[in-house]
Amino acid sequence: MDEKLHILIVDDDIVDRMAIGRALRNTGLSISLVEATDCADAIKTLQEQSFDCAFLDYRLPDQDGLDLIRQLDELGIRVPLIVLTGQGDEQLAVEIMKAGASDYLAKSKVTPERLSQVLQNAVRLSRAERAAELANQQLRTTNEQLLRQNQELESQRQQIECQNKKLIEASKLKSQFLATISHELRTPMNAIMGFSQLLREQYPDPLTAQQLDMVSRILNNSQNLLVMLNEVLDFSKIEAGHLNLRVSDFDLVKLVQLTAEELRVLAIQKSLFLDLDIRLQNPEVHTDQDCIRRILMNLIGNGIKFTETGGVRITVQALENDTLEIGVQDTGVGIPSDYLTAIFQPFRQADQTLTRLHPGTGLGLAITKSLVEAIQGSITVDSQVNQGSTFWVQFPRRVSPP
């Protein structure tokens, strides 16, 4: 050891103190010595100063070494103690070591070499114990911090779980409300449309041109409102998990052609073209026909709705791994690039203002995405503002059982 060791010698015999001191100085170690003559003096000295080691004579005038060790322990004074015993006191020294002493040494065997060995071992052992105790204390502190953090995290998890349950319940109630109100509104809306159609056909009495125009406006707005109600009802069913696939074999090309013809009148009203580009040799598919039809209705209807000049082109083709692709391309207003990921979210439109030119619920593409995923497919979009958009729907020719 290169550093200086601070040593306390506790012995009431001055000759013994001198002998121990001389032997310690001859060890070759860097040592500073302090002496005490009894237990009281030793305790006071240990309270006032810190020592690397103390050499303790067992038989002191006021107390014995065992009592001194106990007192130091009660006072929380930690110092390596080497007990010095007389001839034949080895058994007693062992008992003292059990009480907490580091080592013992018979006074008759005190030599510089022996003292150096005993002293260095005691100091190393003490420092190792302190380092271990410090590490354990740090570990306990860390464990306590981790325990508190875990408790806080558990409390936060429980709060989040509670909030999630409330959100799920609120979402469920909202879906039920939307489904109920949409269903209830459809009945009077159908009645309004039915009577409007009768009036437009001038039943039971002829109408003036102004009256016919008013009735046509009522019918058109009722039809638009019914479309929005149906979208809300469809979305509520999908959100509530009530969308059940009805898989069957059918001709995809015929379905695309029939759906396009249903919507062609809307294109004609806006002087738009509606073209089909069929590149499919085998038109037979095994999936949900209604899902495919509704996907086509939404995408083609949107293409016509957001296009003022040009038109809409529908492409059907086969890809690798028995995958089919339907593309719906328009020459309409297009979608800003920073909004392409948001258009499939419920109630979102590229134009969110109250003065937007194209009204709607903002549910069409959200419903379409859910329908595409239901048939185990995917939907993507390419778009440029004022140049148009193309929606690509890819799905397996044969849908796997749910």
UniProtKB/TrEMBL annotation:
On whether Transcription regulation is a keyword of this UniProt record, the answer is no
Keyword terms, alphabetized: Coiled coil, Kinase, Phosphoprotein, Transferase, Two-component regulatory system
Reactions the enzyme catalyzes: ATP + protein L-histidine = ADP + protein N-phospho-L-histidine
Q: Which one Pfam family would you cite for this protein?
A: HisKA
What Gene3D superfamilies does its record include? Answer: 1.10.287.130, 3.40.50.2300, Histidine kinase-like ATPase, C-terminal domain
Q: What class of enzyme is it?
A: transferase
PANTHER family, sorted: OSMOSENSING HISTIDINE PROTEIN KINASE SLN1, TWO-COMPONENT HISTIDINE PROTEIN KINASE
Q: What is this protein called?
A: Circadian input-output histidine kinase CikA
